[in-house]
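Input chain follows. Return structure tokens only.
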Amino acid sequence: MPAGEDSLIRGWTRFPRKGRRVRRVARHPVNAEHHDRVGRVEALLDRIGALLSWLWLALIAVIVIAVVLRFVFGIGRIELEELQWHLYALGFLFGIVGCAACDRHVRVDVIRERLPQRTRDWVDLYGVLLFQIPFVILVLWSALPFVAESFETGEKSASAGGLPFRWALKAILPIAFALLGVSSLTRLIALAHRLLDDAPGSDPKTAPPMRNDASGEHR
């Protein structure tokens, strides 16, 4: 399966690779509480992702039902067709959040992968701070009026027999990006703490496992 499809479908799911050592990094004792808070937020995102991952099975079921009705019984249902892309939109938007939460988005970067881990952490930190978080803010700023207008006008499908409450689907956009914002902040904090923990003179005490970059492992 291509890497992009694997990342999107698996979303929050992370399977550590066998045979690889898990390294623990040192941390400052004053950061212990912050590590715990970040871990709780990540665990919450994991639970949300595990629940929403069932959307893909629901999408498959709707597609099968629509195909059987159309090609076996000669019945075409526009609401089933619309429900398909509604579910796909939900899975795609929340899949973005899941991939960001465990850093499994596709990267095409021949330079970054050759850099030391600490340098890569700095690259990721500035990427999240200067690009990802501003992008989330921009989308939220644009999406809220977009959803409000749809709700006020009672927008629904323009097709006869289509699904009502189009605003409910559009409301998923700010919800998903709000979760992406939370995920971005937790990753930013985790990267900052990791850089502090790896800095010269850091406390040599052992830290609990932290989420690794692309592999989804802990370190």
